Amino acid sequence: MQLFRLGLLVASFIASAGAQSTFTPARPPAAPLAVKSPYLSTWLNIGSDGGDGGYLAGEWPVFWENQITGWAGMIRVDGQTYTWMGLPGSTTVNQTAFEYTSTKSIYTMNIQDKVEMNITFMSPITPTDYKRQSLVFSYLNVEVSSLDGKGHNVQVYADISAEWVSGDRDTIAQWDYGTTGNVAYHKVYRQVQLEFSEINQQGEWGNWYWATDDNDDMTYQSGRDIVVRGQFASNGTLSNTVDTDFRAINDDWPVFGFSSDLGTVDSSPVSTLFSLGLTQEEAVQFEGASAYGPVKSLWTSYFNSELDALSFFHNDFEDSATISGAFDSQVAKDSLAVGGDDYLTLTSLSARQAIGATQLAGTQDKMYLFLKEISSDGNVNTVDVIFPAYPFFLYSNPELLKLVMRPLYENQEAGKYPNSWAMHDMGSSYPNATGHNDGNDEKMPLEECGNMVIMTLAYALKASDGNYLDAHYNLLKKWTTYLVDDALYPANQISTDDFAGALANQTNLALKGMIGIQAMSVIADLTGHSDDAANYSSIAHDYISKWQSLGVAKDANPPHATLSYGNDSSHGLLYNLYADAQLGLGLVPDSVYQMQSNFYPTVANKYGVPLDTRHTYTKLDWQCFTAAIASSDTRATFFKDLSLWVNETPTNRPLTDLYDTISGNYPGITFVARPVVGGTFAPLLVTSY
Ligand SMILES: *[C@@H]1O[C@H](CO)[C@@H](O)[C@H](O)[C@H]1NC(C)=O
Ligand SMILES: *[C@@H]1O[C@H](CO)[C@@H](O)[C@H](O)[C@H]1NC(C)=O
Ligand SMILES: *[C@@H]1O[C@H](CO)[C@@H](O)[C@H](O)[C@H]1NC(C)=O
Ligand SMILES: *[C@@H]1O[C@H](CO)[C@@H](O)[C@H](O)[C@H]1NC(C)=O
Ligand SMILES: *[C@@H]1O[C@H](CO)[C@@H](O)[C@H](O)[C@H]1NC(C)=O
Ligand SMILES: *[C@@H]1O[C@H](CO)[C@@H](O)[C@H](O)[C@H]1NC(C)=O
Ligand SMILES: *[C@@H]1O[C@H](CO)[C@@H](O)[C@H](O)[C@H]1NC(C)=O
Predict the structure, then answer these.
(1) pLDDT in tens, 635-677
(2) pLDDT greater than 60 at residue 11
(3) Where in this chain does the record put each Glutaminase A central domain (predicted)?
(4) How many angstroms does the Cα of residue 234 sit away from the middle of ligand 4?
(5) In this structure, is residue 568 part of a structural domain?
(6) pTM of the entire predicted model
(7) Among 657, 656, 673, which Cα is nearest to 371's?
(8) How many CB atoms lie within 10 A of CB 584?
(9) Do 89 and 184 have their domain in common?
């Protein structure tokens, strides 16, 4: 812990040279502000000013797709108005510090050395507590205290615009103001609901709630942006009126404000809490065992109404902060033990992004976790997007891995997928989990068969759930037959890294297939199929011994696995080796681990090791898989390069997993906010030596 503090101090000191604010543990390309689901996903991008960004005041928060989701904050101190969030117009406060943890982004602001603000955005992560995790809500807590020993007269203001309710700014919004118990709320929604539709990736249905404590110090107002904000700036209180001229989002920009009069503030912090979130009765449409149809959001199975859900959430701040704080601490403790500050920089930045692509649905008796392949194509529960994220699920709660595989199993076991291999995804366009009755999904057969078998065993071992293996044995066996046919000499095909193109005899893909076969041998053994167990194990061992000639450039200096069989001048990240270690299979000899670990540092660029010899770009997630199974020295080098990249990258939107190892920039493909960054958790499950 001592070392951790020292490390943070050094990082902060370096970051502060030439800037007003410190950034701890790093200045990320974008800070998660409210990131909880595919539709509650608002960030503060570092901005087009690249290296000089990261300031909460002076830039609008944006949805992950980059359109503004208006969110403004102002404060009056002794009658002077300042902006602390967004761009509503007044003088900005001075940001002195930014810090992130797994669940929080915290800004510290200074106003004329008179008053200090701590502004905390908390998107709770409660992986084993489904009631809390089911709520698509996030907190904003604003704490103010006096810095100069004098009392100051303070009012705090915050609003949202109607931009949250639709991706089309010409859409007519409607709204309402109300109270429930001790909670005051603005409810804002699309006047014409378009269930299960998206525009510019935003969800076009459900109700948005923006809430605070209903007390004597609170005033509210809805109306035109300059009117409402102007009223606060000139007066410090709002008019307690509702604008009933329902209109387009961009027609005199309606905003929904709250002001809290804190009176005279001295050195003890006074806080104002806001809650922001989305209620959708129905989350997705799903082709499961029964006919295609809607599946309810899971929160509906815990709460009788939206207002009950809102009220619970808003009043739950202290408990929720305790649970999220425990998650933060656990991730910090475990990450520091594995890879110090450099590694914690990666895991703590990735947690909200990974879980923030998911949505809990169904009922308490039959839950599903739906996942959106954000930014790359919007597929639902893509198997090779779940796979890189599987370490996050397994680490935080293995049952989440079961829940995210459940739709895939249910659909395929109902005979709704005609191919002999595992389906690529549950549907091309989230939130419509249509399945692929025609078998025309993106074809990644070896990749997905291997992924399903590996993840199934990973879940069952971690959760000690042998029944799960029994239940899915037949389908697993069918997929393994495919692996046996294709893994030794993989046909010309794409892997999960489809942007890199198709290739025959991919060394790393073959390895996934072989590890999948050995994983199936373990599954067979655990379920009492001893003949299958012996058969698969003997095939996997036969294959892996051949693979060591086919896929290794033995005479290279140093020797290394190739990108494809026989091409000794090629190489790549052999990230599929990870599952052999994580599942404890012992299929692949230690010498292969050693060889790769010695090799990577010889081909590292400034910001990491290229994905393969075809390009200089790389993947954040696969480097973490690879680092997990490298020697401690090589692992530390990976983490150092990756954390340097997070600090220096010119990418300026929610963390990309694909970037160039030399420039640190997007390599012509802009991936943002993808859940695959859950792969940064890979070394928390296993490290080799
Ligand atoms: C911010 O800091 C600058 C430089 O010290 C100072 O001139 C300015 O008044 C400060 N602004 C606020 C709002 O404190
Ligand atoms: C802000 O947080 C720091 C560190 O936890 C604390 O010392 C300070 O009192 C807080 N200030 C306010 C205004 O809450
Ligand atoms: C999902 O399906 C509905 C029809 O049931 C359609 O209106 C909607 O546009 C689809 N959503 C997406 C994102 O394609
Ligand atoms: C502020 O607004 C309130 C309510 O509209 C009004 O009574 C009061 O006079 C205003 N004060 C100032 C200083 O404008
Ligand atoms: C072993 O598995 C392969 C692939 O599924 C199958 O073709 C073969 O018949 C099996 N052999 C035995 C002895 O079960
Ligand atoms: C794969 O490698 C094997 C062994 O080197 C070779 O015989 C075969 O032609 C290769 N397949 C393709 C499609 O290139
Ligand atoms: C071998 O790999 C290198 C690097 O990816 C590539 O440039 C070359 O074309 C490959 N050679 C063959 C014969 O495929």
Answers:
(1) 999 999 999 999 999 999 999 999 999 999 999 999 999 999 9
(2) no
(3) 340-683
(4) 9
(5) yes
(6) 0.96
(7) 673
(8) 10
(9) yes
